[in-house]
Amino acid sequence: xxxxxWRPFVYGGFSSVVAEFSTFPIDTTKTRLQVQGQxxxxxxxxxxxxxxxxxxxxxxxxxxxxxxYSGIAPALLRQATYGTIKxxxxxxxxxxxxxxxxxxxxxxNVICGVTAxxxxxxxxxxxxxxxxxxxxxxxxxxxxxxxNCFMNIYKSEGIRGLWKGVGxxxxxxxxxxxxxxxxxxxxxxxxxxxxxxxxxxxxxxxxSFIAGVTGAIASxxxxxxxxxxxxxxxxxxxxxxGSRAEVMYTSSLHCAVQTVQTEGFLAxxxxxxxTWVRLGPWNIIFFIMYExxxxxx
Length: 297
Fold this sequence. Notes:
This protein is mostly helical. It has helices at 7-35, 52-63, 72-97, 106-123, 125-136, 138-141, 146-162, 166-193, 201-231, 252-263, 272-296, and strands at residues 238-240, 243-245.
């Protein structure tokens, strides 16, 4: 493909939307698992869910199956922007930096992935904030339309509220995109060049599965911090030892330290199973569709 090719943007956006819709209920359970157990917020202090399957069943029984798709509108909007920009920038940079298969290295792929992840996630952050709020606080946001929810966050928290958590979001995207896309491309390249497999669905399946596993391991701690920062409300100041203090996370580092101190190190891997279970199918659906669209057109 030429460097200024529009196809990676279109194929990436469309494939991302399909993969997102197909795996969204798993993402909802991941969000619920990540926000529970916070000692600073009474609303999320209780440990309601014992795991992914228990969360799926309990959410369905108590709130209805529709609750599993709460936040799907901003999630699809996010993928239509984030996924389009991410894949477009990644493969456009690769086409500019790498002339042939022998010139491709893991380092070059990682640089392209990190750059694409940071830029695309920063632009799409408001849709990510709303998606997390709607997933974690379904009862509060269920009857509001997407536009009204955006306006509610803007009116109560300002423009900064829509970009809350943009730091860890960009960090997570840098890790996920900087791991998943390079791992997928390098795995696929080596499988094909070794003669073990051809450039077919089996190769795409294996490569995408490996990319999903590595992405989940690398990104879950940052994802937990990102989810908690996005979901937190600006709580009223409380009196602590005669002084007023705001009970909230002030930064990514503060959130990570508080989480480890109050809940233990493994709390940074809350929601790992649904993250892994989701990233696997998500990557498989995405890459197989993306590769199919490339061959089709």
